[in-house]
Amino acid sequence: MTAEELVAVNPAGFEIIVDTVPHTVQDARVTWEQVVEIAYPGRSGDTQYVFKVQYEDATSHPPSGILVKGGHVQVERSGTTFSVLRSVVS
Fold first, then answer.
1. 54: domain range?
2. CATH number for the domain including 80?
3. Is the Cβ–Cβ distance between 15 and 6 less than 8 Å?
């Protein structure tokens, strides 16, 4: 099923989990920037920090891994999880 078909089936969006907290996004294609903004609002462009984003249970190949800055993954309608680690640049 394509992302467009999933939106038609689930017009309320896609439920993802970011650092154990559920969030709804409107598109099956979720970007690194979206995930970091959910975890750390207003900080995705802050050069003081480095963010590492890991994901699990996505429809992308591979279904789990590390999401790099500028990248994206295709998520399940419900249950794709993300973990965001923040480090201070030294």
1. 3-88
2. 3.10.20
3. no
Report the alpha-carbon distance of residue 88 to residue 42 in Å, rounded: 15
Radius of gyration, alpha carbons of the chain: 13
pLDDT, tens digit (0-9, with 9 covering 90-100), for 55-83: 999 999 999 999 999 999 999 999 999 99
What is the number of domains present in the chain?
A: 1
Tokens 């975890």 belong to residue: 39
> If DSSP states are collapsed to H, E and C, what string results for 19-79?
CCEEEEECCCEEEHHHHHHHHCCCCCCCCCEEEEEEEECECCCCCCEEECCCCEEEECCEE
Nearest to 3 by CA among 80, 82, 81, 74: 74
